[in-house]
Amino acid sequence: MTAPTTPSAPIDPTSTDAWASLEAHNLELTGSLREWFDADPERAQRFSADAADLHVDLSKNLVTAETLELLQQLAREVGVEAHRDAMFAGAHINTTEDRAVLHTALRRPAGASPALEVDGQQIDEDVHETLQRVYDFADSVRSGEWTGVTGKRIETVVNIGIGGSDLGPVMVYEALKPQAQAGLSARFLSNIDPTDAYETTRDLDPETTLVIVASKTFTTQETLTNARLVREWLLQGLRENAGLTVEQEKEAIAKHFVAVSTALDKVEAFGIDPKNAFGFWDWVGGRYSVDSAIGTVLATVLGPDTFEELLAGFHAMDEHFATAPAEKNVPLLMGLLNIWNVNFLEAETHAVLPYSQYLHRFPAYLQQLTMESNGKATRRDGSLVTTETGEVFWGEPGTNGQHAFYQLIHQGTRIIPADFIAFATPNHALADGEQDVHELFLANFFAQTKALAFGKSAEEVRAEGTEGALVAAREFSGDRPTTSIMAPKLTASVLGQLIALYEHITFVQGVVWGINSFDQWGVELGKQLAKGLAPAVAGDEQAISAEDSSTSALIRYYHEHRQQ
Ligand code: F6P
After folding, report:
1. Which of 87, 270, 375, 493 is a good FRET partner for 511, with 20 to 30 A between their CA atoms?
2. Greatest Cα-to-Cα distance within the chain, rounded to the nearest angstrom
């Protein structure tokens, strides 16, 4: 089998014909969303597309058919399709780390044909073998066969991880919480602030707690420190409550600690039995890993069936991205729209506003996915980018955001493209009278994108009886771009589809900008410096004096104010 080829050096997007045409088009573009909708009764239909179970309406973006055509031309000129195919085939598109990027392989169904072999590894076999081990473990915890060292059933699973080893699992858990097995719940510990470990464990019973240490590298300071803290808490609690002896400690760790990592040797060195460890591979980036063994906490608490459904949802979106024609390819179009908004309309941020409380951690999850991927200023060949890249992603669930920051989106001076996400049916049965509440909630969802698109003119404000200076204050310009994403219900499959949608949007943007979306060198310097600062923080006067004046003064402030 020939090795998949990595696409050649990045093409400067600003040097393409499409870019020049887009610039000219932007200058010539006239009209408004009001006018465009009036002129074309089919606009919503024309600018909508379905991807698996997601219905995506792009019509309230500041684009015409010509804009979208030119953006697709740009995608062709910079080779988005070739890159996509190279990624799916296992080419080493993560060039700075010389790695394949194969998170899409994590959700290929068992027996997919032809089988995927990359760098001599039978990918499908390895993925499904690991999944089976994760499911067997999950089933044994769920059935009560796996108990703590004192024979009690596990009631709480604490996932210790950070970044991709935390944000994905916590987001999915919060989204699908109604599917958690009765009597079993999850908690997530990530911050190295000792308060986080304290708050996570303080009301737990060590006898019924299982800990998953999740770390791709198993070197991350925060995770290993928290794992040590929790190990101490657990052993201490078992000593006090259950009379655990020193001889029983090893067995206690074996019954209460499992690990997920690509570095199984380091797991063992930490004291966790390798047979209680689940692996994954260097071709899975941390922020793309929720569908790997990093999801063990999810398979355990929500169940293997739910996890399988999640994976099927991811795969459905992968299929769409890999095969849908460009003009109906939702991740491609949304990625290109982001390019339009950032590079031509000069948007600096992008809001993601889920109208579902269950998705309350989705924006936080997307922050790592998008910003750790595309927050870069050098291209794949080491040259500097020629455009702005990585916009700031942020958001909160509606309607809370409406009463906080929507003012700025509606009437501020900045353009803030926003994705609105909603579901026709809520995830739990509605009691009498609750259907009205759900409809009220959805009415808010529909109203916001309408207000942002069409605004309210001065004449309309006056017609309502307002006069004088208040007219301007109550006027809404409209033409504020939004995308609406709807699905029948927030099922595990739909959630998988949504995550994969944003993975692929991020990918498209990275290819256009010519950057490697799969490394994260930018987080290294802070980590290195934190290690180097340890002696100064511990009080070594010579080390403190060697620091710059600001850092040494801050460390001195700490020493002067800390309570012993
Ligand atoms: O923030 C840097 C980073 O390497 C992320 O990419 C990753 O998700 C996180 O740290 C955690 O890393 P690990 O899973 O190796 O502990």
Report:
1. 493
2. 83
**Positions of E strands within 82-217:** 117-118, 121-122, 156-160, 185-189, 209-214
Number of Cβ within a 10 Å radius of residue 410: 18
- C-alpha 255/C-alpha 273 separation (Å) is 10
pLDDT at 1 > cutoff 60: no
Relative to the CA of 372, which ligand 1 atom is closest? 6
Q: Which residues have CB under 6 Å of ligand 1?
A: 162-165, 215-217, 220, 223, 286-287, 372, 520, 523
* Averaged pLDDT of the chain: 96
Retrieve residue 9's tokens: 């050096």
- At residue 508, the pLDDT reads 98
Q: Assess contact for 291 and 496: CB atoms under 8 A.
A: yes
Structure tokens at 139: 């089933």
Pair 58, 49: CB distance under 8 Å: yes
Distance (Å) from CA 247 to ligand 1 centroid: 34
The C-alpha angle 495, 501, 504, rounded to 5 degrees, equals 145
Ligand 1 atom 10: the closest Cα is on which residue?
A: 163
pLDDT tens per residue across span 182-222: 999 999 999 999 999 999 999 999 999 999 999 999 999 99
What's the token pair of residue 380?
């794949």
| pLDDT (0 to 100) of residue 435 | 79
Q: Using CA positions, which residue lies closest to atom 6 of ligand 1?
A: 286
| Catalytic annotation present for 216 | no
